[in-house]
Design brief:
By secondary structure, the protein is an alpha+beta fold. The protein has helices at 10-34, 110-116, 121-138, 143-148, 150-167, 184-234, 237-246, and strands at 35-38, 42-48, 51-57, 60-63, 69-75, 79-88, 94-105, 170-181.
Length: 247
């Protein structure tokens, strides 16, 4: 029995060619929907049918359920935010502060951050936390202490802010107070105080100098008197007669 090979007709080709293309495109789309790559410096929050999952995708290649799971990349590298804040000191001086904060997201808990806060965590959480921490610590010091105890103030702000950010799955790395600005009246008062202190210091030094010079003169007079006394003791009758005879 002879097998007959059917040659595809033009009609069959017209049908199967679009179908093949559609299947090929579907496979490619399915492949892209199955594989996800998390870039370096990021972690992925996994969302399945509208629910955030308890696990996180670290950087690298991962697979997910097509059309059911999606992944939201969240940057976990160190980030910086610099902001200008107004606060009041303990002596009710207005302080304008430029504060720079370095922080990063907790890589193991970016899913909860995404679930509870979302991607706009800087505006919703970070900015208010910085402002509140700065005001709480600044109110504990006078304006002059904010200048003289700058490192201590910075450390307290860091401790306060760190506790607040921990609640929202963020880790505080560093806090820097780059600038303190006070009112013109306060700056003028500080300048006058420094001038007065310099004048007091100069007067004190002048008084000490006068006292030292007076003591030196007293000691010099004592030395001269003692020298005359010794000279008188050395003058004997023989020496007097000798001086008369010589003269």
């Amino acid at each position: 029995m002879v097998n007959v090979i059917k040659i595809p007709t033009k009609k069959n080709l017209k049908f199967w060619l679009p179908v093949s293309v559609i299947l090929f495109v579907f496979v490619i789309v399915l492949l892209f929907q199955t594989v996800v790559i998390i870039q370096p410096g990021y972690c992925g929050a996994v969302i399945q049918l509208g629910q955030v999952q308890e696990y996180v995708f670290s950087e690298g290649l991962h697979t997910k359920v097509p059309f059911i799971q999606s992944v939201k990349p969240m940057e976990v590298r160190v980030q910086k935010i610099e902001t200008k804040q107004n606060a009041s000191s303990r002596d009710l001086q207005i302080v304008n502060t430029v504060i720079a904060v370095n922080y990063h997201l907790d890589a193991s808990r970016v899913n909860w951050l995404f679930k509870e806060v979302g991607v706009f965590y800087s505006e919703r959480v970070l900015d208010p936390a910085i402002a509140e921490s700065l005001k709480a610590v600044t109110a504990q010091y006078t304006a002059e202490e904010l200048i003289s105890k700058r490192s201590e103030v910075s450390l307290k702000i860091k401790e306060t802010l760190s506790d607040k950010l921990e609640t929202y799955y963020m880790v505080l790395d560093e806090v820097n107070l780059t600038e303190f600005q006070f009112s013109a009246e306060f700056n003028d008062a500080i300048e006058k105080k420094q001038v007065a202190e310099q004048q007091v210091l100069k007067a004190t030094l002048d008084l000490q100098r006068i006292e030292i010079e007076a003591k030196q003169k007293i000691e010099q007079a004592k030395a001269e008197a003692e020298s005359l006394r010794l000279q008188k003791q050395e003058v004997t009758p023989e020496l007097v007669e000798l001086r008369k005879s010589v003269s």
